[in-house]
Each structure stands twice: as structure tokens, then as C-alpha cells.
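This section describes the prediction task in plain terms. A model, or a person checking by hand, is given the sequence of a single protein chain and must write out its three-dimensional structure as a string of C-alpha cells. No templates, partner chains or ligands are provided. The sample shown here is typical of the held-out split.
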Amino acid sequence: MTINKGGIDMEHFLPMRVLVVTVSFVAACNSGSQAPVQEAKKESPPVQEGKQESAPAPAPITAPTQAAAPAAPAATPRKPPKETPEEARKQLEALGVQYDEKTFFQTATDGNAAAVEHFVTAGMDPNMKDGDKWTPLMHAAEKGHTTVIQALLDGGADANAKDSENNTALTWAANEGHVDATKALIAGGADVNIRNKSGTTPLTRAVLYKRDAVAAVLRQAGAIDPRRE
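The expected answer:
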């Protein structure tokens, strides 16, 4: 045994001291582990559900407003008139021709090209239709009045206007075998393959009535016989 100056057995004292320190350390660890962890649960703050703004109600579906059918545009002359409307009316008076629709149709049917030209310049609509839905151009085409056809086309007549059966001026010119009238109408924009309600084309009429010269003109312009399609 080793005794120091104070009379203490140092050999026994050192192990005891180590033991006390060890026990104290273990106790401290145990107490630390039992203590509640001070790390507060950081509770996630409640997710504040934002006010879910309700989607705007869809706009009610409304049927598109059907616009009123536009009025038929006035005929546009292809060539500038040679006189003013006032001068044209005076010319009709000088010829003893009354300015009205009935007389206009009659002059086209009769082949009076000068009067027709005055009528159109004075303001008569070249695309007006009679009770059978015929235009002045159809009457002129059926009769083969090429100069009247040209005057009407120059005044803005529609070469593809249709009657009640969807026949056009070209149909009637071909039907009657008028070669020059047929050429004038084609030059004026007539559709050579237009069909009426029964499916007949100008070429069909020409072939049916053996208008060979007209049929040749129509074929040269691109007409196709629907019976051979």
C-alpha cells in the first residue's frame, strides 16, 4: 500500500475515483436520454388552403346570329357607258320607247341592241327576271341576238344567271344552235359545264338537237358530255 503525506492510500483511492467518474458519466448520459428532446416538433404549419376560387362559369353558348342575306349587288358595267343616265332616257324618248321593265324585255327579245344599251345606261337592271325567271340575256340568247347579248354583258349582265329550271342563257343558245351567240356568251364568262335540275348541260342540248357546230364550239371551250363521264 502506498500512503502519501496526507495518510491516504493512493493505490485504492485511484480506482475508486475512476469508478465514481464513470458512474457519474453514465448517470448523466441516462438522464440526458430520458429528458424530452427539446427539439420541438416543428409542426408544419397547417397548409392554409388558399381560397380555391371557383372557376368562372362558362359563358352560355348561344347560336350564332344569322346575318340577313345581303342584297344582290348592282350589276357592274364591263365597259364605261357612252352617255349619262339622263341622256340615255332622252334617247329612249326620242325613239318612242317607254322606260319600263316590260319594254326592256321586249327590246331584248326583238334584238334592238341600241335600245337595250340605252335602257341599261339609264339604270335598268340587266339581271332582272320575268315571271318565268328568265333574264333579258336568256331571251336574247334564245333568239340568237348577238349584239344584244354583247350590250347586256357590257352592261353587267350575269352570264350564268339561272331560270326556274337552272338553265342559263348558254343552255338556250346551244339548244337553238346559235353559234355566234354561244361564242359571245363563252367569252362573257358562261360556264360550259353548268347543269340544270335534270343534269342537262349546254353540250347535252347541242348533241341532243344535233347542233353540231355549237357542240364543237362548246367542246373546244372545255365542255364535257355528262353522258360519257
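For orientation: The first helix runs from residue 10 to 34.
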